[in-house]
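User: Hi! I'm working on a homework problem where we have to compare a predicted structure to a textbook description. Could you give me the structure for the chain below?
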Amino acid sequence: MLKNSKSSYGWVAILLHWLMALGVFGLFGLGVYMVELTYYDTWYKGSLDLHKSVGITLAALLLFRFGWRLLGTQPDPVAGSSKAVNMAAHSVHKLIYLALIVIVTSGYLISTADGRAIDVFNLFAVPALPESVANQEDIAGKIHFYAAYGLIGVVVLHALGALKHHFIDKDKTLIRMIKPLKDD
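Assistant: Happy to help. Predicted structure tokens:
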């Protein structure tokens, strides 16, 4: 089952979810590591290039995910979930998407503040905007930093919610994000 149904996520949504999760945690870990490097560290440039390339890839996955979500079916909440729990889950998802948009946008603005394009894995380049604003790199850097930590906080809430559904509520919320389920 590639596409979502009313009761389950399909393989495309599941794969996007977990690829993005790996990307977010990998980029966050690399970002935390990178801020400790100095210009003279041997992996300074390599870590920046990798962070930018994976970040652009994550941005592309995010756009694809928005399209997939917009054009496809979304599973209904699992039976037995209260309206308050469903509203909280919906709010957390919106915060995750908002944080991702802010992070990829601010990352792009940091990387292109000097007018240079972003080279993506030496395969292609994402051009810079024709003009930048004063202190663009610093302003976007602060936004990027706080949005990244905010995202991790919201993702922890998201994961705790999934674990609550699985171990306390004993429903299929987590399972249906691991594998497609047959319609009930």
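For your comparison, note the following. The mean pLDDT is 96. The two ends are 14 Å apart (CA to CA). Good luck with the assignment!
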